[in-house]
Amino acid sequence: MIRNALRLGKIGGIEIGLDWSWFVVFVLVTWTLSAHLFPMEYRWSPGVYWLTGLLTSLLFFASVLAHELGHSVVALRTGLPVRSITLFLFGGVAQIAREPSRPSQEFLIAIAGPLVSVALGALFGLLALAAPFHSPLAALAGWLSRINFLLALFNLLPGFPMDGGRVLRAALWGSTGDLLKATRIASWTGRGIAYLIMLAGVGLAFLLGDWLSGLWFVLIGLFLENAASTSYQQLALRESLHRHRAGELLRPVQDLLAVPPELPLEELVHRYILRTGRRCYPVVDASGRLLGIVTLHHVKEIPRGVWASRTVGETMTPLEQVVRVRSDTPLDALLEQMSVDGVNQVLVVEDGRLLGLVSRDQLVEFLRTRAELGI
Ligand SMILES: [Zn+2]
Questions:
Q1: CA 119 to centroid of ligand 1, rounded, Å
Q2: Low-confidence ranges of the chain (pLDDT < 70)
């Protein structure tokens, strides 16, 4: 489920992963604490600086994980499946499988993370007060307390995709009833905040000469700007797909080029695929019965040397395994189903009768044409 990430295991069915970029931050945080911050403030032996730094750094990432688990637990409780949590360069991200369906649900999921961070901030604060003055434990707890409060504060900035942006979106969604408009405004403020963070980074670098922090701010700003614009585009795309049905796109049965099951793949390629440019064919026997479908994708899986001896019937996806939808299925649900099942085409069936076929290419073509026409 988690791509390019080191899998740590599962907590309550949620897969926990570390992206390679996490190690960069881990080394940076440990080094900053052990070689700079702690030696500036405290008088310990060198080994203690590094041991405390390492432990603080690990607990910092445990805190980020706890923040994401906060979001995840509430998502699960309100009925949204959570696939995984990945820790990476800019913190953590919980992969929630679906968007919230109600503003209140979105609000609760969004606020849960910062609440966990505030609770951790308070807890570490108390620990710092209870620990012996200037001890490694006091230093560790003190830093973790500050960083958790900071984490909560930063995440509550009211711009998408930060938690505060989601709270803002939930409020706008609740008051206007228009999710798309709410997302548009929340992603505008998100982009605004991202530009301010980048500007602050430039200021830090050029005015104060703090190049490392400056670069860091610019990178965070770029990341947030990108996340804010893509999340809006994705939603806009989904909304526009939602207004259309599978029936509008389907290629009717009579327009499909049917092939017999005994046709060798070699001939399918040369007589059909290369000549017509079509990528998907129903396989129909002599009596006109539909047996399955064969696609360009199937052919690509078979080594070229056996194309002459392998038939379409041996290669096709049999009818009972082809994904079927109704003609009134909205296109966003169709695309989601294709992704979940990992297929490139579905059959459109109504009352047990085959109406036609919709392929991913058709969906892409449909979107491209609409974009070209500006509708
Ligand atoms: Zn969060």
A1: 14
A2: 1-4
